[in-house]
Fold:
Amino acid sequence: MMNTMRATLSIAGLLLALLTASCGGPAASAARKTASAGDAPADSSALPAAKDEPAEPSDLDRPLEELFAMTCEHQLKTFECAECRYETGVVCAPAKLFAGGLLQTQKAVREHVAIPLQLTGEVRFDERRVTHLSTQAEGIVREVHVALGDRVSAGQALIELESVAVGEAEGACLEAQAVLRLARRNHERALALRNEGISSEKEYLQARQEFETAEIHAESALGVLTRLGMSAADAQKLGAASARGRLTLRAPANGTVLFLHAVPGEVARTEESLATLGDNATVWVWADLYERDIARFSGKQIESRMAATVTVKAYPGEEFRGTVDLVSPVMDEASRTIRLRIAVANPRGRLFAGMFADVKVFLPGEQEALALPRNAVLEDAGRSFVFIHHHGDYYVRRPVEPGRSWGDRIEVLRGLKGGETVVADGSFLLKSDVLRSKMGAGCAD
Ligand SMILES: [Zn+2]
Structure:
């Protein structure tokens, strides 16, 4: 918590430096001169106010005209004074901060209030990001070279199996190679004898046919080994000494071991996954949608990627945001449900495959409301506010009353008319700026 606050403050500090540099101008340097002359009255708002003193009315309770008409002890319009501006709830945010992507604005617009539909679901791996390792030959697990969570690279040996089928295939392969060597020698000899006119063309053709057949058998025996899961390199190296019925399962790609089922001494069956490799930076939550609700999901809505939130028992009260990215085209005949897939970002790996989840999918409803992105609405001392663009580089915080929320949207019941430009991404930086005296007293250093 403290770390987060410090991080926020240091970014805010960076922003403050930018704000002062960009918005101070000659007025600000004049202000600093006045302040350092020593005759300026003490800045009472920078000191922690005594409890029994009547508090200054908050900028949130003053009309806009009054805030922009205020003057400060530096004989400046307060909102234009880099040192006193925060008292008016005004922030000067130059356009380059928006161009750089640090800050972003949105218009307050009326939109359809989404209606949450409650579903239950389960967290699964994003199958596009994982591969399952299994064996083509049943066998006994002899060695497991990796542990859960290990990073592996493509081709790395992961699991060693001992398999009767592989042993038999190795035997067949060695035998076919022996036959091939003999057939090659016979063919060379028959060729030499024919060229010297000692043997007949018929004898030569027979030796050539036997050689070609032996080549095909050897190829096919090698093919059996690779189909059983032996790498081509391992199969090529096969010799009488190395033929032990051992099968090395290798990583098909780079990734992390997300799931490991192989245990030494246990039987590995062909239909089982022995390990899952890949990453879980996004996961899928599969939710069940009942027949009665299907009509609410038209193709058009799916294309617009409906917002959804996911909660799991492990993190009570915490919502993971996602979007519906697939509605299964097949209905489960037993449960009479169709499956809905929600892609959820999982950058810190806190959602685990197999977790049960409560899912809310937000469907566009009939009602309209004035709405903003959730991150535009901030809170301090129990009051909600947004930063509205006033003029030029100036943004002012104004009180709002939030209402319903859906996905990453929140309704504004009071405080906005609609059409205002408000700061969404990065608004917390502006909050740190206007509340700097408060935050400075509590959390600096
Ligand atoms: Zn001032």
